[in-house]
Write a structure and sequence with these properties.
21% helix, alpha+beta, 6 helices, flat, 37% strand
Length: 384
């Protein structure tokens, strides 16, 4: 066990323990096979726990994600005041990558491995993470084979990718990671003042090459307006991790959150789970940016007319609730000829995103071929 102390509490996510409070147990979960004693893992194909060793399927069914179960919202303000019930908190053993800062749970018997997000070697006994428990999980819908197929098809469309990388990637293992997200609900009321622009057309005569011509001009008549708009936001989704670039994770959307199911550790059997590194309050700031863009669109629609100007906009937010949820991502991080390439696959839809590798030789050949083609066209044109 590491002697590194647990990280200090983060605002809004880690309430202080009262004096003389009992030591919290670490959240560790094993699911031994009823037939051979090896570990079960969650199978996206079977929709339940299957033993990797003997193929036995667990008899206890998991809740189906399409049954529209109820996921209870949690009070945002109570969480910021460190007033969440202790039952909503957990302590896990995590490893922190020194390169990308990802915090990922690992098996207790694992001591050294590569970070699944950037392929950096790390030691597994980094420390503890005390955080808000997940309320919901979106189970993997694709297994590793299907994720590999999706990645291979995506790489096959990259004309200038090195052939060696594609062959190398086909034989590499992909990691199934549950990535942390926050969802926020909120009621908003926005007061605004601005101007509505109504377009009208006039004609005037202009001289062109000494000849008179009629020209139509568009002008705008502005009038002052004010009003208010209301909107209830449901499940505004915010990534709670810094391990992957936002351009990757945003490109994996959309997610079908209607298939979220109440969190059960069995869904994580055989997969890893990343701990959130963006706390609840910072996540809400990102959610507000998303809300503000929608509110501005609503205000412009409410102003109406042909054009709109917003002079002042004041939004009040109430009834904020949140959920911590886990979404499935297949991750592949390969070091190839000294360069790290990362690819991510949406574990629900198979949508792929990643670093785009370039082959200098292919680019050079394409430029040379284009130059030869242009030269041939010019030569033929000159002969004619």
């Amino acid at each position: 066990m590491s002697n590194v102390p647990p990280p200090p509490p983060t605002s809004g996510t880690q309430p202080d323990s009262p004096p003389n409070a009992p030591q919290e147990a670490h959240e560790t979960h094993r699911f031994p096979c009823e037939q051979c004693g090896a570990d079960y893992r969650f199978s996206p194909h079977a929709g339940g726990l299957v033993c990797d060793h003997c193929g036995h399927k667990a008899e206890t069914p998991l809740a189906t994600p399409w049954g529209k179960p109820t996921l209870n919202e949690q009070d945002f303000r109570a969480a910021l005041r460190n007033q969440l019930p202790q039952t909503d908190m957990e302590v896990t053993r995590v490893s922190t990558c020194p390169n990308c800062a990802a915090e990922v749970e690992f098996d207790p018997e694992t001591h050294a491995l590569e970070c699944p997000f950037c392929a950096t070697p790390i030691v597994a006994d980094t420390g503890e993470n005390r955080h808000i428990k997940p309320k919901g999980v979106l189970p993997f819908g694709l297994d590793e084979s299907a994720a590999h197929t999706a990645m291979k098809q995506w790489m096959g469309q990259l004309w200038f990718a090195p052939n060696g990388l594609q062959a190398y990637a086909r034989g590499r293992k992909m990691e199934g990671i549950y990535v942390p997200y926050w969802t926020y609900d909120a009621q908003t009321v926005s007061q605004y003042t601005g101007q509505r622009g109504t377009e009208y057309r006039t004609t005037r005569t202009v001289m062109v090459n000494g000849k008179p011509q009629m020209r139509v001009e568009v002008k705008v008549r502005w009038s002052n307006v004010s009003g208010n708009v209301r909107r209830f936001f449901d499940d505004v989704l915010v990534l709670a991790s810094r391990s992957l670039p936002h351009r990757f994770t945003e490109a994996l959307e959309p997610w079908d959150l209607s298939r979220l199911t109440p969190y059960q550790p069995k869904y994580l059997a055989g997969f890893r789970a990343e701990a959130y590194t963006i706390d609840l309050e910072d996540g809400f700031h990102a959610a507000r940016e998303k809300m503000d863009r929608v509110i501005e669109r609503d205000v412009r629609f409410d102003i109406g007319g042909d054009r709109q100007r917003i002079s002042a906009l004041n939004t009040s937010v109430s009834g904020v609730t949140f959920k911590h949820v886990l979404l499935p991502v297949w991750v592949a991080a390969y070091k190839y000829r000294g360069q790290t390439y990362r690819f991510v696959v949406n574990g629900q839809t198979g949508r792929v995103q990643g670093e785009r590798p370039w082959s200098v030789w292919k680019i050079g050949l394409a430029i040379a071929s284009a130059a030869c083609l242009i030269g041939a066209i010019l030569y033929i044109g000159g002969q004619q």
